Amino acid sequence: MLSSTEFIRQSLEIHLFFARIMKEHSFFLEVGFTPKDSIYIKQANNFRIEFDRLLADTISLSNGAVSPSVLQSGEVITPFTLKAEMASAYFTGVNIPFNLTKSEAGLMGSNASMLGNPIIEQRVCTLNQRALVLIKALAQFKTMVLSEVISCKMFTSSYPLLIDHILREAKFYFQIIQRLQNREEINFEKDMYVQESFWNRIMAEHSKFIRGLLDPTENELINTANNFGNEFDKLTTESKEAMDNIIPISKVTQDSLTATIEIAKFKSQGTQGLLECKIKSIIIPLLADHTLREANHYLRLLKIFTKNK
């Protein structure tokens, strides 16, 4: 059974990462709809606001309660996040609350006295329950949108694969919080297979989205993104083979670590290039920073898996 200390720490760390991811998914959906679908725009905006609130409450509980390694990993915010939010708010007219990012920049690492507090534990438990309801509702919304798009009843600038991609992330977030609410201990060996299979696929799809959203004249970047897509497709297959004991997981983990270091550099350079108006694309800056944070999250996990082998 998960200890009180670990329950608090792991719950808050997951929300710091995933609540921001969910609010941005809602934003991407919102700006991808056409004026005809104003009802869907409003629904997506409401989800974005609710996840803003969830993230705000998570931040208020997190100071002194989360690992310094998480805060330093670049998965909570990156050096580009605030500028990416400002640029994306300017381009879309959506009111993004920059104060959340500024608050996260000031968070401090864990303090033992915070982690043993039963009042904090109860507040985190309530936060988790609220998150489960909200994530489930957002997943249902994404499912409905995907169904409308693939049946040609709706047009959106979001790829059908992207909607499916963000739906899988919502379900993954839900499962993690559900496990934490049940106070389940993490089995590192078992979790390693699941996480690597999941995130390698996510990295492959990021590469393909980037490839498809770059201007056709950006040949070098398109080729690089395409190569990353092929590499992570291969790693996704190998992750599944490791689950079936066809190949050793240690090799997949090391290869995934090497590839993720490289794609994180690519995404970092890309985000900076977009913000400096040096890359021609239809990539909104916050989407670039979003994919970078997911790579940083996966990178931190891979380093843990490497140490725990």
Automatic annotation (TrEMBL):
Top-rank lineage group of the source organism: Bacteria
Gene3D superfamilies noted in UniProt: Protein of unknown function DUF2935 (1.20.1260.120)
A Pfam family this chain is assigned to: DUF2935
InterPro entries for the chain: CotB-like
Name of the protein in its database record: DUF2935 domain-containing protein
Organism: Clostridium estertheticum subsp. estertheticum
Species lineage: Bacteria, Bacillati, Bacillota, Clostridia, Eubacteriales
